[in-house]
Each structure stands twice: as C-alpha cells, then as structure tokens.
C-alpha cells in the first residue's frame, strides 16, 4: 500500500478534513504513533531538547537527524515522515543545503524535509522542489532563531510582522512547499494565513483554525515534570510518573526477593539434575 502521498494533504484541506502531526525520534514511539493512526510524523530538531538533553535545537547535527529518521522510517509503513533540517545545515550555502536535504531522503529515508524561515529561503525551497525534494515550511516562532528573537515569544503581533508572515506563507506556497507549520502566532493571524493558502497550515500554538496541528510527543505524553513548554502544549498522559513508578516497583521487588518467581524462571529435567548431582 505504501506511504500516504503529500498531495493527499492538500486534498484533505480542500475537503475540510483536519489532521494531526506528531513528532517521533525512535523506533518504538514511531511504531506506536503510527499504530494510533497518525498520518504524518515529524523527526523534529526538538530531538535536541527532548531526547538528547540540549537546552535548545541549535546543537542538533545532520548526523543526529539522519540517524533518528532512519529509525522512524524503519518503524513505519504508511505515515509521511518529515525530517527537520538542523540549524546551519541549509543557511550558509545553497549547494550544501541541497546535499543535506538529499541525505535526509537518501540515507534517512524521509519523505520530505522541513526548513524554518520565510522569503530568504524561498529560492532554496524552489530549488529543492524542482530537484524532487518535498518541502514543508515553518514560520512564526522558529526555534532555531530563538537567540535572535530573544526568547520564546509570540510572533506576528504587529501589523508589519503579521503582513510579512502572510507574505512569507504565500511565497513558500508559490515556491512549491506542500504544507507550512505556523508556530506561536496569534490565532486570528493563523486563521488569515489558513484561509489564504491552498496548502495546509499545521499549527502549534497557532490556535484552532489551522488545517492541522502538531505537538511534541514528549510534551503531550508528560515525560518531563520540569520541562515547561509554552501554554500550547497539552498533556494527554503522565508517562514520566508511570515510568518512574514501574521502575521503583521493579527495584523493590528485586531488592525484596519478590522478582523473579518460578513464573519468570526456566526449569531443568530431573534426570539431568540427578546426573549433575552425581558428577559432583
Ligand atoms: O522540531 C520540532 O519538533 C518542530 C515542531 C515544534 C514543529 O519543529
């Protein structure tokens, strides 16, 4: 049957069908989210914060993303897998950007790549699409520029910033992007962008009017008690506490002798045991 086509997403938008995207970075979680019915998985550079222990996405490398994309692709059959292009893998040199995007498809097995930025990356997006590399855009609070923004602040709040964001979204669509992530912008602005584009908008902290939503898996699963993403992250489970409780129970049972029992052990036949006893 193969993976979902990126072109389906535009059809879904035309039909008014909303959809969810989620991040995943490894084999078990990618398998689980696909089994749950997710049509599109992002191997985001949020990898840096939620899996690799960095305090931003900036240190993530091409090799990190290729490695994790391969695991996600091995785990899935149907979902579109989008691989994030890490900081400085596409900003410095367009030829290097093309080679890096190619690596994510050839070595990683991704269906598409995602790049942060507006009009300044439009020529690159066009070149990638012409070369056969599907591109997802990303506007608003683009985490790779967090140092430039001076923190995680809502973007597009002034008339000029909002107009630029709308123009950037249109330019990305014209360059051939198949979807655009809108991160941490006012909901009415996300609505305007969504109404003006034929390609789907995928919101995170962009309100309810986008065609789709994306969440960071570890935030929605409640893996961390002390990671405080902006208010757009919703917890659907508290797995951090559940994992700690399970490991504590295991430690107690090992220390107290309650695990393992006969149920978890392997027996030997009586004759072999008698032979061994005789042999001394
Ligand atoms: O890296 C990531 O997880 C992302 C999403 C927040 C859109 O870019």
UniProtKB/TrEMBL annotation:
Mg(2+) binds at residues 45, 84, 116. It catalyses: (6R)-5,10-methylene-5,6,7,8-tetrahydrofolate + 3-methyl-2-oxobutanoate + H2O = 2-dehydropantoate + (6S)-5,6,7,8-tetrahydrofolate. It is found in: Cytoplasm. GO terms for molecular function: 3-methyl-2-oxobutanoate hydroxymethyltransferase activity; magnesium ion binding; methyltransferase activity. Its cofactor is Mg(2+). It comes from the Bacteria. 3-methyl-2-oxobutanoate binds at residues 45-46, 84, 114. Its EC number is 2.1.2.11. Its main location: cytoplasm. The active site is at residue 183. CDD domains: KPHMT-like (cd06557). Gene3D superfamilies: Phosphoenolpyruvate-binding domains. Homodecamer; pentamer of dimers. Catalyzes the reversible reaction in which hydroxymethyl group from 5,10-methylenetetrahydrofolate is transferred onto alpha-ketoisovalerate to form ketopantoate. Belongs to the PanB family. This is 3-methyl-2-oxobutanoate hydroxymethyltransferase. It comes from Tepidiforma thermophila (strain KCTC 52669 / CGMCC 1.13589 / G233). The gene is panB.
């Amino acid at each position: 049957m193969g993976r979902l086509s990126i072109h389906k997403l535009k059809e879904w938008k035309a039909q008014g069908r909303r959809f969810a995207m989620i991040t995943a970075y490894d084999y078990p979680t990618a398998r689980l989210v696909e089994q749950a019915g997710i049509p599109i998985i992002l191997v985001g550079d949020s990898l840096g914060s939620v899996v690799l222990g960095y305090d931003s996405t900036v240190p993530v490398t091409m090799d990190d993303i290729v490695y994790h994309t391969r695991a996600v692709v091995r785990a899935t059959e149907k979902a579109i897998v989008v691989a994030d292009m890490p900081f400085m893998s596409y900003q410095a040199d367009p030829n290097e950007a093309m080679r890096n995007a190619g690596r994510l498809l050839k070595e990683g097995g991704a269906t598409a790549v995602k790049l942060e930025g507006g009009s300044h990356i439009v020529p690159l997006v066009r070149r990638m699409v012409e070369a056969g590399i599907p591109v997802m855009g990303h506007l608003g609070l683009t985490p790779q520029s967090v140092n430039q923004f001076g923190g995680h602040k809502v973007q597009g709040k002034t008339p000029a910033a909002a107009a630029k964001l709308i123009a950037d979204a249109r330019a990305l669509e014209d360059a051939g992007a198949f979807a655009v992530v809108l991160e941490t912008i006012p909901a009415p602005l996300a609505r305007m962008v969504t109404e003006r584009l034929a390609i789907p908008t995928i919101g995170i902290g962009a309100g309810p009017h986008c065609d789709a939503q994306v969440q960071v898996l570890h935030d929605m699963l409640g893996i961390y008690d002390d990671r405080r993403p902006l208010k757009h992250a919703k917890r659907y489970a508290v797995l951090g506490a559940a994992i700690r409780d399970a490991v504590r129970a295991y430690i107690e049972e090992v220390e107290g002798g309650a695990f393992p029992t006969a149920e978890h052990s392997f027996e030997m036949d009586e004759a072999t045991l008698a032979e061994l006893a005789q042999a001394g």
